[in-house]
Amino acid sequence: xxxxxxxxxxxxxxxxxxxxxxxxxxxxxxxxxxxxxxxxxxxxxxxxxxxxxxxxxxxxxxxxxxxxxxxxxxxxxxxxxxxxxxxxxxxxxxxxxxxxxxxxxxxxxxxxxxxxxxxxxxxxxxxxxxxxxxxxxxxxxxxxxxxxxxxxxxxxxxxxxxxxxxxxxxxxxxxxxxxxxxxxxxxxxxxxxxxxxxxxxxxxxxxxxxxxxxxxxxxxxxxxxxxxxxxxxxxxxxxxxxxxxxxxxxxxxxxxxxxxxxxxxxxxxxxxxxxxxxxxxxxxxxxxxxxxxxxxxxxxxxxxxxxxxxxxxxxxxxxxxxxxxxxxxxxxxxxxxxxxxxxxxxxxxxxxxxxxxxxxxxxxxxxxxxxxxxxxxxxxxxxxxxxxxxxxxxxxxxxxxxxxxxxxxxxxxxx
Length: 415
Description:
Oligomer: single chain
Shape: elongated
Number of strands: 0
Mean pLDDT: 78
Structural class: mainly alpha
Helix content: over 70%
Number of helices: 22
Strand content: under 5%
Largest sheet: none
Order of helices and strands: HHHHHHHHHHHHHHHHHHHHHH
Distance between the termini: 133 Å
């Protein structure tokens, strides 16, 4: 059958709406919105019918009534893309934990997502998308891997890069680094927003580190240092990754410079904790315990490290300073490791108590009394080797005290 010409179709539609248009032109004021629309042949909306009561909460995802306007568009244009409406509706349904409805809406979302190229070929792809997204946040990486194996063709056809990023994360967590590197690269070929790009770049660098493919990591990081040179929000992460690469290559002086620069730029607290610990590792590797102590003091003021992690670094820094003969700074580090707000049931606490007790045992009478208390705490700890050494040091301290008392007694008798 021959298709009617465009002019015929347009005339047909104009004929159907002409009575309403004429009525509006005759009744409405000349400059009124409805009159202008009717004069140009555009459809006229019934704005009064669309009004909702003031009590309506259509933007509240917990209110199912808020889905009405989205469902109206989806039902009216079922075979059109309108992907954003489907996506919004699916997110609202997932917020209410209406899984069955969310899966059904997600099916339409992925099938009709804006894509100038390819489109998923079967209805199973959207189900995979939804399950993958949910399982990703629950950490079920093995399940995502199996979905990827079974739905590889559909996932590859889905152009937005977010789905591939989730799959790549799962592969990375399962130590399938080569596969993760490929998926991350393909994700960058899709559409990614400005907030997602830095995350996927970081993941790519970490995969290269795990593969010990330092040449590829260097090329990537060189590109990122140029790309984000003016972006302070991500520059800290780029500098950290550059320092981490040098740390893995055991080029510690270069790593130290990158990581020190990294701390000059803002970063979220979870990432800042990673940055600080990386610099502490590098400083420990080159034996710069004095700078470690300064960094820990700065970290304490900024509250960069969780108490248990900070306690471990206080103890390690104190050990390094003690071995270097810097007893006073070592005592300060051990004292920080034994602060009241820090845990007392771990090896770091026990070791710090032992070391501080041994250092104070050579001091004056007040310091020796403190040493006895610290050594007793270490002797009560869980690590038997440390406890045995603490008991031996405590007994030695007690013997010295008895000898001192005997010497004082004999000196009195001689007088």
